[in-house]
Amino acid sequence: MLHVDLPSREELAALARHLHGSSVSIVLPTTPITPDTDVDRLRFRALAEEAVSQLEAAGQESSAVEALRESLADLVDDDGFWRFQARSLVVYATPGTLLSFRLPTTVEPLVAVSDRFHLKPLLRATSFASSGYVLALAEGGVRLIEVSADLPASTVKLADLPKDAASAAGKASLNDRSPSGRLTGSEGKKVRLRQYARQVNGALRDHLAGQSVPLVLAAVESLGAIYRSVNTYPHLAAATIEGSPEHRSDAELAQAARPLLDALHQQRLVDWSSTFDQRRNAGRASTDLAQVARAATFEAVGSLLVDIDRVIDGRIDETDGRIDEADAPGADSYGVLDEIARRVLLSGGEVLGVRQGDLPEGAPVAAILRYAL
Predict the structure, then answer these.
(1) What is the DSSP letter of 282?
(2) pLDDT in tens for each of the 373 residues of the chain?
(3) Dist CA 338 CA 140 (whole Å)
(4) pTM confidence score
(5) Pairing label, strands 236-242, 285-286
(6) By CB distance 3.0 to 4.6 Å, which of 129, 283, 314, 333 could disulfide with 213?
(7) Under DSSP, is residue 111 helix (H, G, I), strand (E, B) or coil?
(8) DSSP string covering 250-266, please?
(9) HEC assignment per residue over 101-160
């Protein structure tokens, strides 16, 4: 099982607003396999030592450096924390705070010391889900199955999930008559299936609250239509795994769901690219790094694709958006691409963290503008 804690939209905005002279960002790939997490801990300790060395080289106050050193060392020594990991870990630290996020996406290791946090790893994880759920719904039973990219599928235990459609209606059989005799035949059965679907939706609502991972429905067409009529989870996929899931294993349903999850990701990028091409013809889209930095500074970027793996060190002028690249990373600079993304977030724009192959023309960024500059 992946132990994931993604930031909410509000938390991401707060991280984007953060400015502090001694801010450390540490990013490293991890493993969810418990016996191997000690290797992750050793890698983190090495990255933490590198961060402290950069702070000392930058001439930061000794009290601030010592506070950060102690906070990072405490995390290294936390056995319970390292026992439960996902595919990557992001840690943000200042002399007075330490925040950690376990992500379902794979990242490149990185240490960044600046006056702001390095956000791109979070943007990839919050842009596109690499995991999801399957709701296996049948009259004879219901399961919620967690699906991830490289771990076995597993059933999620939910206390309030009804056993089956009949028990949800308080009946031994869906064909039982109600005391008044009103619920009979196919119409009566449909009413009871809708009651069942509402109970399932209610059980899922508490578990999925605040999440944005996709939910794929596996059901026969008639029951699937009933469930969709009462569903309140906004990320229920339009596509369905057809047929009764009762005699299909968790692994079989996960295998059927993965192409649907991948299709959701790809369709979002296809839709984005189509809009980008239309706006570019009107002068409202760009892949030029200097122009995008300027547009982000003037709050003109409505939606941004940014390469999460590429790093360009430097600074961006706060007034005109001019880029001043640095020869090497240091406490007096930051990631230019990360800063563009931060400014877009702070202006209410959408930011999608992607790989280079998803960007037009191999550019490090691509932006759809609110207005032409």
Answers:
(1) T
(2) 556 677 877 888 899 999 988 999 999 999 887 677 788 999 999 999 999 999 998 888 999 999 999 999 999 999 999 988 888 999 999 999 999 999 877 888 999 999 999 999 888 777 766 678 999 999 999 999 999 765 688 999 998 899 988 887 776 566 655 555 555 556 678 888 999 999 999 999 988 887 778 999 999 999 999 999 999 999 999 999 999 999 999 999 999 998 998 888 888 899 999 999 999 999 999 999 999 999 999 999 999 999 988 999 999 999 999 999 998 887 888 999 999 999 999 999 999 999 899 999 889 999 999 999 8
(3) 50
(4) 0.73
(5) unpaired
(6) 129
(7) strand
(8) HHHHHHHHHHHHHHHHH
(9) EEECCCCCCEEEEECCCCCHHHHHHHHCCCCEEEEEEECCEEEEEEECCCCCCEEECCCC
**What is the spatial distance between Cα 269 and Cα 19, in angstroms, rounded to a whole number?**
32
DSSP H/E element including 166: helix 165-168
Q: What is the rounded CA–CA span in Å between residue 297 and residue 282?
A: 21
| Residues across the chain | 373
d(CA 203, CA 215): 14
Token duo for residue 107: 């990242």
The residues that bridge with 132 in the sheet, in sequence order, are: 147
Q: Are the C-beta atoms of 40 and 82 separated by less than 8 Å?
A: yes
Nearest CA among 370, 372, 316 for reference residue 341: 316
**Strand ranges for the chain from DSSP E:** 23-29, 88-94, 97-103, 110-114, 132-138, 141-147, 154-156, 215-219, 236-242, 285-286, 301-307, 313-316, 323-325, 334-335, 350-354, 365-369
